Amino acid sequence: MKILLQQRQLKPDEDLFIAMMQRDTYSLKEIDRVSNSLGHKPGRKAWGYIIKNAVRAGDEENAEMLFSRALWRKVVPDFSGADALIRLLLHPHGRSYSDKERTLKAVDVFRRWAEHGLGFDGCKTSNLHSLLRALLAQPSIENRQEHIDFILDYVKRHGYLLEPNSPRVSAVLDSVYRSAKSHAEAVDLVKGTTTLSGAEVRALFGYIAGMRFDAATIMPAATVRAFLKYAAVKHDVGVRWYTAFLRSIHDSFAPELLTLQALNTVRAVAPPAGVRLDAPYYTMCLQLFGRFARAGIRVKRDLDECWRQITARGTADAIAVRAMLQAFPAWRAAQLYEAWAPAADAATRHSVLSEWAQVLCRLDRRRAFNLLLRGEGDKPGSPALAMFFATASTELDKEKCKQHFPTAWEDPATQAAVARLLLEPSMAQYRPVEAPVKKDTEALEDEDDSEDEFDEDDSEDSGHDGDVIHS
């Protein structure tokens, strides 16, 4: 074969070496035979193929030996071979768990390969995720944190924190940030990754902001500012970044526990007073502050400022008006709506009809009734009808609801929504008044009185009978 290649002036390569190997063979004798026949020593790709043959055969001992032999010959197998060996060590025979000894073997393979490796070569990173998970699940491993840091540092340096060509958070990225100790440490990992696009960085921003760490359940304001500065986000074009952060807080945290801390963070990262931002940023603030207000935190000044900034840029859209009607107290929301409505088009007014009707239910039930009759109709599951039913405080109001909205009145989902509304502190005045229950002491006194009356009657009867007997 060597002479034939020389006659045709062809140079042997890796693909030819692999083709010359007998299918699924991985013995050193076969490797030497093909190498001598071609006059070509196996390289990175060939060694990766040979190791994968051993892995496919389930021969763990020979797979480790071949990996060591390749490194001894100063050839680093490509990542496909190392990846296959790591998978075999972590998941022997398809098992989903790994013991301490096998985990250490897999870590040793990765470290030895990474010290010589040139990158992931576009291979899958799911086994690195499994390796991190195995380390995190084995607290008794010596120098465990050092191994984790080594893997994370390697992943960070090579920029494989996200799935290729997608802003979706990968399995490795999830393990990376789950193993971080704080938001700041997670952000530092992003700073070390230079291959991420703008969309990917934004995805990371929202992902990290929504995570909880023991040190701080909400991302500290200083970390947010440092991240925005690193990403060169300007105030006038950074509305989506701020909005992503606010949305992460809004969607991820319980208002009764963390609202004040989140509110202080939002205030701290807000842009200077002279900087103009687009309405979506203030709309998100309005929604967030409204949630805080419903939780009992006083944010009136922030609510008014958000609405002023939105209307300063023209007529507010339906999203902003909907947020305003839900955030402000009913009387204030009515004032702002009446000032906004004349300049708004009919389609926008119709899109916020449900929220406007809910406000009117607290202020003017007659107007709310007319609006619902024309706009909502007898529609089960309507939040506006649920509010209308909840504010029906008299029997006459309830009969009116049954008469004009019978289907919604009998709807279980609507009645469940009514029950939830009546549990809110602001709806206390609409709760049905329960009849006073007679106290136990009063009941006992009544029983004592009845017994006394019975005794008196009994004694009278006894005396009469005695007289009869005596006579």
TrEMBL record:
Region (Disordered), start-end ranges: 431-471
Record field: compositional bias (Acidic residues): 443-460
Domain of life of the native organism: Eukaryota
Name of the featured protein: Uncharacterized protein
Organism: Auricularia subglabra (strain TFB-10046 / SS5) (White-rot fungus)
Origin organism lineage: Eukaryota, Fungi, Dikarya, Basidiomycota, Agaricomycotina
Biased composition (Basic and acidic residues): 461-471
